[in-house]
Amino acid sequence: MALANGHTLLSTELQLPLRIGKKLAEGGQGEIYQVSAAGRSYALKWYHPAQATAEQKGAIAALVKHGPPKGKAGSRFLWPIDLVEESKSGAFGYVMPLLDSSRFATLGQVQAHRKAAPGYGSMCRISFQAASSYKQLHMAGYCYRDISRNNLLFDPHSGDIVICDNDNVGISNQSACQVLGTMENMPPELILNRAVPSTQSDLHALSVLLFELWIWHHPLHGLKEYQVRSWDLPAKIRIYGEEPLFVFDPENDSNRLPEDPEYQTARRRWQQCPPSVQELFLKAFTVGLQQPQQRVTEGQWQRTFLRLQDSMLSCPACRAENFSPPAGNTPADCWHCRSRLVLPPRLLVKHARGSHAFTLLLGKSLSTLFCHPEEEEKARLFGEVNQHPNNAQIWGIRNLTEQSWSIRLPDGSRKEVPPQRSAPLTIGLELDFIGLNGQIVS
Fold it and tell me: Residue 417's domain spans which residues?
């Protein structure tokens, strides 16, 4: 039942008087309206009669009571705020935060050139935040059950994300839900009815989502899908469930990308994809296809994309974002203009899990997020690459902490660097700060 513009509904628990505004969207489960209450704008999802079941109402009530996952990662979910019911008809829906559609984009909008394409730095932030938010959801005992390119939106410039359509979230390994997932993102065991939605099925769907974000293609759409004449349900079951095969499988090329111009973008983007990301995709869509316990975890994605983000460098000719080659490798060429890249110095920091490298580009902020990617709230900026105010040729790392740093210069001498002062950006300089040890290397 469509809601009339100007009609007023009262939310169940918070007693918000919601004034109905324009309809924003419509899908298989219901319609989305912009609503206002006490001078603030929200979104209201109003279920179609066939979807307005007692089970769905109970599921929404449970999500409202529990609240969103904790922390910064949890705040990215457009979580149900309150139930909204119409007593006479029995119709209901729920109110949630309103999405800023002028800022956030779907992958489909980017591919259709209706929104800007994110650069590599933003791609890393989008991917890190997605993995971080779904991990926080899983740690709360939930599974999302419908991770797909339609439910994750991102700011192409900042890399910030929001996750919508959270009304299908449920307890992991419980099957009482109206939606099992988007078939393209469901793992074989769900397609073949051998399992129920769980954290493990979410991990597969997350890998598919990230592959589509980076490669602009589905990981199982190769020759097998290309040769299908009727893309019906039996064909989808065969491609995604019965005979799934990664298009870049190193052992079996029978589902490789066809020699067709429409597949050139996927082939090119795979070639440009960092080796560390390729390695995780290979794991996700080879052994991970049939062995749920071997799937790529959110933490593996987090650490990989954080390392990549902190290793970015700019092409001196065209300013395109590039990834630094692995340590010890010769300088590479820019993916965009093919000019030879100039590798800047790096700050190599040792920590409990190993080491982390920052490329030292002018203006770059250095964060402790690598120490605890699972708890973004604990991350703090500790430094920033700057120039000497009187000599632009002299660069340094400004101390943004509240404690003095201890540095050891290449000649062996030691100095203290108070807060807001800078350590010289000198190859070989060693730096002790906030319980960590780093060294500037070439």
Answer: 344-441
Closest CA to 4 of 41, 39, 46: 46
Q: And the tokens for 133?
A: 């938010």
**Domains of the chain: total:** 3
Q: Is residue 199 part of a domain?
A: yes
Tokens of 174: 């419980």
Number of Cβ within a 10 Å radius of residue 15: 9
φ/ψ bin of 16: left (φ > 0), alpha (ψ from -120 to 50), beta (otherwise): beta
Q: Are residues 142 and 261 in the same domain?
A: yes
SS3 assignment, position 431: strand
| 23 & 72 share domain | yes
Q: What is the reported pLDDT for 179?
A: 62
Q: What is the pTM of this model?
A: 0.93
Distance CA 197, CA 324 (A): 38
Last residue of a domain, one of 72, 97, 122: 97
- Whichever domain contains 45, its CATH number is 3.30.200.20
Q: Is residue 382 part of a domain?
A: yes
Q: What are 137-195's pLDDT values in tens digits?
A: 999 999 999 899 999 999 999 999 999 989 889 887 664 555 667 899 999 999 999 99
**Closest C-alpha among 346, 342, 369, 341 to residue 359:** 346
What is the pLDDT of the chain when averaged over all its residues? 92
